[in-house]
Q: What sequence folds into this?
């Protein structure tokens, strides 16, 4: 589970925590991995993803419907497109890759795929084993704040790290 710890650690993770959570919530809603959606929703909420976005993802709205909401940044639209294509076809179009690379560093794009792959594996496992939802956990919000650290990208509006910040 060292991979998971690295993804949660803002000192090692390059993407914003909300980019990470967008990948997870989009993938889990698409493949009906309710347990995994449920345990990641509080992380998204604590870190500022609003109710409207979370509910739209939970409902599994098509990308066109999501984008029509007018609340998703270009970066978020790109991430949703990347996730949708990857789940549907196990690859991405050249246009989507170029779009992602225009908005993110190569390291960030690769990290999106790592998050998608890791959580896709966990989704298969939780669905296959029929893992049920957990009861509410007291103090969960505080535990999230203490254990999932932010990085420099989390404080930037566009989420893009400057190359110097990656060194």
A:
């Amino acid at each position: 589970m060292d991979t998971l710890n690295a993804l949660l650690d803002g000192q090692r993770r390059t993407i914003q925590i909300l980019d990470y959570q967008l990948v997870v919530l989009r993938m889990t809603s698409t493949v009906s991995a309710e347990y995994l959606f449920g345990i990641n929703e509080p992380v998204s909420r604590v870190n500022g993803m609003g109710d409207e976005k979370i509910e739209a993802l939970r409902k599994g709205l098509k990308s066109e419907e999501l984008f029509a909401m007018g609340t998703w940044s270009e970066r978020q639209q790109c991430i949703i497109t990347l996730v949708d294509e990857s789940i549907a076809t196990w690859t991405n179009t050249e246009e989507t890759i170029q779009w992602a690379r225009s908005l993110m560093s190569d390291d960030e794009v690769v990290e999106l795929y790592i998050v998608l792959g890791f959580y896709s594996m966990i989704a298969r496992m939780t669905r296959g084993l029929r893992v049920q939802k957990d009861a509410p956990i007291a103090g969960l919000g505080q535990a999230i704040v203490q254990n999932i650290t932010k990085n420099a990208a989390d404080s930037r509006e566009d989420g893009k790290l400057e190359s110097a910040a990656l060194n």
